[in-house]
Amino acid sequence: MSRVILFNKPYGVLCQFRASAGRLTLKDFINVPGFYAAGRLDADSEGLVALTNDGALQHRISDPTGKTSKTYCAQVEGAPTADALMRLGSGVQLGDFVTLPASVQAIEQPDWLWPRDPPIRFRKLIPTSWLELTLREGKNRQVRRMTAAVGYPTLRLVRFSIGEWTLEGLAPGKFSFVDVRLSRRATRRSR
Questions:
Q1: Each residue of 180-190: pLDDT tens digit?
Q2: Distances (CA, A) of 89 to 40, 75, 86, 92, 172
Q3: How many domains does the chain have?
Q4: Burial, 46: exposed, middle or buried (Cβ in 10 Å; 0-12, 13-18, 19+)?
Q5: 42 an active-site residue?
Q6: 88 and 39, same structural domain?
Q7: Contact 138, 71 (CB under 8 A)
Q8: How far apart are alpha carbons 153 and 133 in whole angstroms?
């Protein structure tokens, strides 16, 4: 049986177990040997990270060709136009590649969202908006690069789900275990 750890990564935490001068890492929150991250979140992004003790499952979750969906909530600078949302959804030229089509919609600030520490900077004359984006690929800083390319830089980025797994009920800095059975059904135990 494969095991997965679902971790709600706080802002500023590096997605690695190796110590890094004065920076928090996964090791500061998860002391369970034999688990490795299946994909990463940048230090300045928050939310769901999946770790597993199964190399094949790790590859299946993180490999872009596996097309595991990942849903993000992004607070962006400004109020995206319908054209910007269409461009985000149909694929964005980022110089080194064009993103795959994505599901994108404007949303209200999620009611489940915790305050960020430190908070994003407040700008009196520039409004912010929230977007929900579901991608089936995961290139380096992709959501941030996509929103910037259409004129709405990301201020805060929170990954809400990876496939069927979500942040639901998982406070920042906390984790829970999921047992993945051959039938691909999962059971979850919080910690």
A1: 874 444 445 55
A2: 22, 17, 5, 8, 29
A3: 2
A4: buried
A5: yes
A6: no
A7: no
A8: 14
DSSP SS3 for 22: coil
> Mean of the pLDDT values across residues 121-140?
89
Name the residue type at position 117: D
Assign 3-class secondary structure to 138-183: CCCCHHHHHHHHCCCCEEEEEEEEECCEECCCCCCCCEEEEEECCC
- Give the H or E element holding residue 83: helix 82-90
Collapse the DSSP code of 75 into the 3-class scheme (helix H, G, I; strand E, B; otherwise coil) and give the result. strand
Range(s) of the domain holding residue 76: 69-162
**Whether 82 and 139 share a structural domain:** yes
Apex 42 CA angle, 93 and 184, nearest 5: 90
Say what the pLDDT of residue 182 is.
43
Q: Which of 28, 42, 44, 63 is catalytic?
A: 42
Tell me the three-class secondary structure of 29-44, residue by residue.
CCCCCCCEECCCCCCC
- pLDDT at position 27, please? 94
Helix (H) or strand (E) holding 55: helix 55-62
133 vs 69: CA distance, rounded Å: 10
Instruction: For residue 35, give both structure tokens.
Output: 């688990």
**73 falls in which pLDDT band (50, 70, 90)?**
very high
Q: Which of 37-41, 111-115, 167-171 has the lowest mean pLDDT?
A: 37-41
